[in-house]
Write a structure and sequence with these properties.
alpha/beta, 229 residues, Zincin-like
């Protein structure tokens, strides 16, 4: 596989293959030069790389320059929150704490603290609060019961649901526009009753969230950059 990647000009890339049960193939370039491919058909991995070669190269080459590179953005004093570039005001203090005043994050921190880690913890907390309220609201609207919501630091999936009617969501979605994580929530709620991506599933998604294609396009185009912090 190393020779295959080298011949394609991807010699600095590490390929991680994950076999999945679903029919969906996911190709995920990550900021640390790892290319993850999730597929039910491992024998076609090379084909997937060749078919998407230009896109893969473009993503890896532009990670550092892209305006949604969140690590670079944070260095300039901003973080993405609900799809908006939000200022981070840093103040030295005797404790580590973050406040959100509706317009900016006020980060109070001790000397030598990991400021990025402090703001990430705050974003995770806000994500849990936001998603819990939305899942309950949408579950009631769709008349679909769920058991439990978990907000996690997932590596390859924005959301998932289990046979026990549990829903998992990535906390990183809180950095995306609201219509994007609204879509993911509805997507996973509908999966409770429609476990496959068949026609009935997409018909229900379209019925309850007509803007779903815009949200899917946003995640396809920009979602990978939510992993740059």
């Amino acid at each position: 596989m190393k020779d295959f990647l080298k011949n394609l000009g991807l010699e600095n890339i590490t390929l991680v293959i994950r076999k999945v049960r679903t029919n969906r193939v996911s190709i995920i370039p990550t900021p640390n030069n790892v290319l993850i491919i999730r597929t039910p058909n491992v024998s076609r991995v090379k084909n997937y790389v060749i078919e998407n070669l230009n896109w893969i190269k473009n993503v890896f080459e532009n990670y550092n320059q892209h305006p949604l590179n969140l690590a670079k953005l944070f260095e300039t004093g901003f973080v993405m929150f609900k799809g908006k570039k939000t200022p981070c005001i840093k103040e030295g203090a005797s404790i580590n704490r973050v406040y959100f005043n509706g317009e900016s994050f006020i980060i109070k921190y001790r000397v030598s603290s990991d400021i990025l880690n402090i703001i990430k913890k705050k974003l995770k907390k806000l994500a849990k609060e936001e998603f819990e309220a939305l899942v309950k609201k949408e579950a009631k609207r769709l008349n679909i019961g769920f058991n439990r919501l978990r907000v996690k630091d997932t590596k390859t999936r924005w959301g998932s649901c289990s046979s026990n009617r549990n829903i998992n969501l990535s906390w990183r979605l809180i950095m995306a526009p609201t219509y994007v994580y609204n879509y993911v929530i509805i997507h996973e709620l509908i999966h409770i009753e429609e476990p496959n991506h068949y026609k009935d599933f997409w018909n229900k998604v379209k019925l309850y969230y007509p803007e779903f294609k815009e949200a899917k396009d946003w995640l396809k185009k920009h979602g990978i950059y939510l992993y740059t912090i």
